[in-house]
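Example 3.2
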Amino acid sequence: MEKKKENIVLVPTDFTQVADYAIDHAAGIAKQMNGKVALLHVINKDTKAYLKKENLTDASIHEKLEAIATSVEKKYNVKLDYIAEEGSIFTTISKVTTEIGASIIVMGTHGKIGVQHLIGSFALKVIESSPVPVIVVQEKEFGNAYQNIVLPVDETTETKQKVKWAIHVAKIFNSTIHLFGIKHNDEFLCDEVDRNIAQIKNILDKNGVKHTDKISADSHSNFGKSIIVYGDYIKADLIMVLTNPSQLLPSFMLSPWAEQVIFNAAKIPVMAINPVELNISYISL
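Structure, written as tokens:
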């Protein structure tokens, strides 16, 4: 009999407060999935400069990670491993994700401008190189989990992977999916958005997932802002965006409005999904 894959949530940390919020989300997700958290610190030039300045050795990094692990295990009653590995955050996070078989990365960010260590604008590069979805967290606690999820819908062909992940998360947290369509002045594009929403609603119905749908009141040029305003209005716990395969590099790319959503002022967590295969038998498409 094939051994069931363990659900591992990888959370990189640079020991800042916003990274602690990411750990809070990672622990909540792992507990709900009956999985475990893997805490990662990438030892890069910033780490080495800090150690030299404070006259510390590499052992202090392991001591910090061990202290966090003990605290998190006690607070959330979840299993937690920790890893310290030398390298670049842009390659090491992705490499460790593959090596340990993590299914999700949870990462803190200060926003596009701010502290630029593990987090900050570097989050975009991590997302675009990640082999699994990345949940980007700002200074917001996990709270009552992801009960209300905004799923933006545009005129492009919706990949099955985006809908699969929406269903997967909704099943775990008993979520309601709020479809939010982009507004166009062009009638053909409007029809494409309506068609996509209708198809997604049909799939959600087949899988018993609660949902609502709405078209943005603003034009497509303000779609990112509209998503954030709508998410704040319905008190969304999560917004899902999809990356697209890069035509030039072996990675993924975010649309301009997706970038705006990730660093939203409402501090709503955002799940960036790369179009990789999610094989779950209970999802019906």
